[in-house]
């Protein structure tokens, strides 16, 4: 009921210190079809559910190559995800042009998160409605990150996002103790 | 009822993670007169329903030539479609001027989708109210894409948009198994 | 009743995919005093109803010369029409200065329609409240176009706009079958 | 009652195709003290009612000289009228500086009307609340125009604006048939 | 009651053609402590009521010297008045620097009024909440003007503004017939 | 009750000619912890109540040195006060750099007041929520000013602001008749 | 109840002189997981609670290194905290590049507070939703500051922020009298 007072403007805080518009954008991620990612010490695997709209259509692209060493799987608003992927591609090209070495995954993830944060603090924009699983390898090994609409990011050994991702997460946590070993090693 | 709280501003998320203004713009596509597209490995056919307003009027142009190798059929707000067609024409001319080769269809479609995405994330704009069937041929063969107001695009073997397009889609799916064969081949 | 939720902002879509503010602007055209246009293969005739406000006033100018080969008759907000006529005049002058040939009628009509479309997609503007019958002759013969506030345009053999234009349209359709012959020829 | 939905924003159309804010601004002209203008073939006379606020005050200036050949009488918001008069003076000076001949009256009136039109199509402005009777002589003879807040202008042989101007208009129409003769001549 | 529909935005006209926000700003002048001005042919006297806030405070400055030949007394928002006085001072300095003669009083008053008018036609501003009695002498003799928040100005022989100024005005009108004589002479 | 119609926007006048948002900002000064200032002919004393938030914290700085000859004590929003102090410091440095003499206290106070006034006339800002007691000495002796959120300033011999300052003011007025003598002398 | 009138816009004062949006942002700090800081004369210790979202995730980074001599621990919106940390890092690098000495902690804290204050005075932004414990050492010894969303900062000997920080604060105050000795010494 009273939520409506505070939840239509991205720059309005609720009395409990929450930004509802950011939370609603995260809800959009939950509505998207699922995407999962796993990593060992040396490799990252990204996968997602693709349902073609009709027999005559190809499926919509939801995994994007960013650079030779980085890829991304998305859940939520595909258009927002595509725009962000393009941004990541540009950053990678600029970095390797300037420094003649591939952009470290963790660094790209921070830039992506900062770009998302800006959209949560301007009244004329809206938070991106997409979650991104960013996987890649660099000098420090293989990495899997989850970037969410709030401008936060988290590093994972294995993670799933999108609709019915809870089942996937439970499955991953049960079966992949061996991954956890690798993670600590 | 409660939808009204979240559906008048394009940059406002609903609690369920939806952007109602984008969905309403897609409704405008459904209200437009129908357009269909089909493709084989080498050719694309675009067609649309044209009802002249009166005996003394010509019909309104709803299929536009973009370049020698690309055409577009629209459903929805004709004015928005015309403006987007002009944008596509300019992109094609610039590309062939710079690279002396025709702009690949898939690349043009992405640029078009990005332009549509921007209009879903600025509070002083509105999403385009038009769906575009973009057909064209390039080095990778013949392509048929559908660009929708949300900034998404889909590749199809055959597709129909606009009012009563469901019947057309059903017809296409039933009769054109041969197309599907070509699609896989 | 519920329309009011969606019809006060030009950049707000209604749930049924309509832009009410654009439709209301078209209503302004219907309230203006009538204007009609007819064309043969070689000539265009524009006419409009002019009621002087008082015995001592001249009538308000509602037909404007744009260039030697183009004229325009308006219905609706005269001030908006005058501003658009001036825009058209400037475009014609620039074209003939650059290319040393008159601006083709169809090309001018598209530019005019694009200018109108912009006003339907910015939250701080309003759609023009005027309909324009643009008549002119160029290398491809005589043309009669109707430009409406939505950013659409239509080619006609004969057309009428403004208040009680329906009667005029019916009359035109009945009596001018010969025009239709010319149109096809 | 329901008018209120559409009449507080200058860029909002009513369902009947009216711009209420423009009409309200015209109401401000009706509230101002009266001004009248008459013209023969060679001369224009402008006059207005001036009531001093108190015995110790001079009256407020409501007739302004624009140039040697042009003057203006206003009804409505005096401050708006003064600002527009200054604009007209600047235009006259610039014209005569550039072309070494006086600015034709009709041309100035159009520029003034265009300036007024802009204020009816920007959400952060308001229509001018003043009506202007512009009288002047140039090579084509003597002219009397009425510029109203909507951006329209009308040429008159004799006209009255402001509060209780209806009586003045009736008087003018009855007594000045001779003026009408001149007007046609 | 219904006034509230039209009286919170400075750029919104009421149906009766009034700008309530401007009228409310004039109310602020009436709430300020009184200021009066009188003039003969050669001199102007400005005076105002100054109540110190406490025994330990000096009174707030409400009469400002603008230039050697011009002074101003204010009623209403002192901060607004001070800002406008500074503007006037700058204008006087610039004029005398450029033309080596003092700025005529009437000319300064018009510039001041134009500055006030702008604040009544921009949605992001508010009208100044101050009335200014501007007194000064120049080649054409002594002058007393009243500039009000609406952008209007009036010339007076004697005038009073601020709270309970009506009594002062009545007194001035009764006793100063001799002033009126001077005024006409 | 009805106040709410006029008191949420800083640029909206109430029907009684008041700016409620400015008055509310002055309320913030009353809520701050108290600050007092006293002056003789040659010295100014500033003092304020500082309550540390906890045993382990230092108290918050509420008296700032502006220049060698000027200091300021604040009550209300400390962050606003600190930003304004920094502004004052910059002004002092620039002045002494340009003129090789210290900035007179009265002049600094006017600049500060003008900065505050601007925030009461722009719709996208808010008035500063801080009161400043500015004390300093210059060629004309010692001065104590109070700058308030409305853009006004007052000179005092002794003054107190902030919560429960009324008791302090009463005390000051009773005991410091000797100050008053100095003030007049 | 009535609070809602004043608490959705960051630039709107409540009648009691409060900025509710700033207070709500401070509430976000209270919702974040706890962070604490302690300091002796020569060292600062920062610590925070890190709960990993799942067994397969690493924890989210909540302590950032700013420079060799400065670190920060955050509670609240992690994305806001990360953006501010980056700002601090840039300031430190610029300072040491220009002056070849490390940026004093107190100076950095003021710049950070000023950046936060700006977000409380622009209608199109929102206050940062993060509290920062800034710890560092410089020539004047070891320092611990708390920067809060309102633009205020406080120096502490020991402090805790975030959810259930009250217990931590009580613990710190009881056990660390020895710290207090150091603080005074």
TrEMBL record, chains A, B, C, D, E, F, G:
CDD domains: proteasome_alpha_type_1. Its main location: cytoplasm. It comes from the Eukaryota. InterPro entries: Ntn_hydrolases_N, Proteasome_alpha, Proteasome_alpha-type, Proteasome_alpha1, Proteasome_asu_N, Proteasome_sua/b. It comes from Salix udensis. GO terms for biological process: ubiquitin-dependent protein catabolic process. Residues 6-28 form the Proteasome alpha-type subunits domain. Component of the 20S core complex of the 26S proteasome. The 26S proteasome is composed of a core protease (CP), known as the 20S proteasome, capped at one or both ends by the 19S regulatory particle (RP/PA700). The 20S proteasome core is composed of 28 subunits that are arranged in four stacked rings, resulting in a barrel-shaped structure. The two end rings are each formed by seven alpha subunits, and the two central rings are each formed by seven beta subunits. The catalytic chamber with the active sites is on the inside of the barrel. The 20S proteasome core is composed of 28 subunits that are arranged in four stacked rings, resulting in a barrel-shaped structure. The two end rings are each formed by seven alpha subunits, and the two central rings are each formed by seven beta subunits. This is Proteasome subunit alpha type.
């Amino acid at each position: 009921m009273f939520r409506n007072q505070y939840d239509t403007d991205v720059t309005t805080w609720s009395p409990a210190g929450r930004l509802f518009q950011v939370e609603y954008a995260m809800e959009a991620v939950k509505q998207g079809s699922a995407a999962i990612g796993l990593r060992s010490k040396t490799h990252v695997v990204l996968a997602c559910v693709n349902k073609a709209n009709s027999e005559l259509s190809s499926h919509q692209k939801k995994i994007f190559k960013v650079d030779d060493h980085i890829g991304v799987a998305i859940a939520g608003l595909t258009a927002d995800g595509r725009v962000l992927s393009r941004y990541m591609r540009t950053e990678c090209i600029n970095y390797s042009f300037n420094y003649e070495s591939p952009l470290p995954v963790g660094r790209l993830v921070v830039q992506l998160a900062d770009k998302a944060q800006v959209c949560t603090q301007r009244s004329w924009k809206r938070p991106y409605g997409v979650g991104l699983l960013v996987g890649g390898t660099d000098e420090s090994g293989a990495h899997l990150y989850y970037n969410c609409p709030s401008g936060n990011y988290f590093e994972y050994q294995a993670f799933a996002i999108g609709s019915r991702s809870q089942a996937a997460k439970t499955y991953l946590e049960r079966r992949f103790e061996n991954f956890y070993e690798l993670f600590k090693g």
